[in-house]
Amino acid sequence: MTLSQPELFSVPTSAGGGDPVSGFFYPPMLFASVRKSVPVILIAHGGPTSTAYPVLNLQTQFWCHQGFAVAEVNYRGSSGFGRAFRMALAGSWGQVDVADMERAARWLVANKAVDPARLFIQGRSSGGYTALLAMVQTDVFAAGASQFGVSDPRRLRAMTHRFESGYLDWLLGSPDDCPDNWQQRSPLAQADRLCRPMIFFQGAQDRVVVPQQTTAIVNALRRNGGSPEVYVYPDEGHGFRKQSNVADMLERLLRFYRRQSTDQ
After folding, report:
1. Residue 166's pLDDT is what?
2. What pLDDT, on the 0 to 100 scale, is given for residue 33?
């Protein structure tokens, strides 16, 4: 199988300041010899202080062989770029990561011949939180996908284990000292602003981002007149493990993205 090779990209510092944003761009295998505008999926890694590496990822290759480009973005807060870069996320989760995903999307449109009308964003766990807030706060992305993503940080803090709850305080500030952060950066609290297509995937046995996180925002979107797609896998926890479930998720995502591309 021919593989799409990662191309390192770096988004220059914006005029208003800020650190450069880097990532890896995987061009589509289809149309490789024809320069044309292509759809792109921007992926927000989890963690959220994890990192995207240029390693073989068969899911990335799946998208490239279906005619999509993929961009894995190392937004501020990612590990491996120095302490200052990682610490930029302290108290700013749901803010600098979202801004950097948007910056990366606009740079790709200007430099990588991707279609501005077919920019998609997706993420797993905390990456799903970033994807949801990007859909709320910006108008750049045509559609988004949340894979067992966080929709309500305050409820997550109340239900998760002790380490995770302390980590959330580092990311958003303590609820007592920074209550506005927890409200303004909650996808659930701003669900009325999410008017574009969304698709959700959730494991019923997830004990980290519990199923109620997905149920709550899906119900809120439906009350607001939206029609999000949602798929719950009874035998999955936090991160899908079974090959059949992963394949099913990819097939449903592919149909979702193709439908949004056709509707443009």
Report:
1. 79
2. 47
- C-alpha torsion sign, points 160, 219, 46, 65: positive
**CB 34 within 8 Å of CB 28:** no
Structure tokens at 226: 């939206």
SS (H, E, C) 49-93: CCCCCCCCCHHHHHHHHCCCEEEEEECCCCCCCCHHHHHCCCCCC
CA distance readout (Å), 21 to 24, 98, 129, 195, 212: 11, 12, 19, 27, 33
Cα–Cα nearest to 132, from 169, 100, 94: 94
Check residues 116 and 1 and name the one with the higher pLDDT. 116
Domains and CATH numbers, the chain: 7-263 (3.40.50.1820)
- What's the mean pLDDT in 170-187? 92
DSSP code of 198?
Answer: E
Conformational region of residue 252, where left means phi above 0, alpha means psi within -120 to 50, and beta covers everything else = alpha
Tracing tokens 């449109």 back to the chain, one arrives at 109
E strands, the chain, are: 7-11, 21-26, 38-44, 69-74, 114-124, 143-147, 198-203, 229-233
| Predicted TM-score of the model (pTM) | 0.93
Under the banding of pLDDT at 50, 70 and 90, the label for residue 53 is: very high
Task: Please give the sequence-ordered ranges of beta strands (E in DSSP) within 68-196, or none if there are none.
Answer: 69-74, 114-124, 143-147
For 166, the enclosing helix (H) or strand (E) is helix 162-172
| Tokens coding 24 | 């890896």
pLDDT tens for each residue of 7-32: 999 998 665 566 788 999 999 997 54
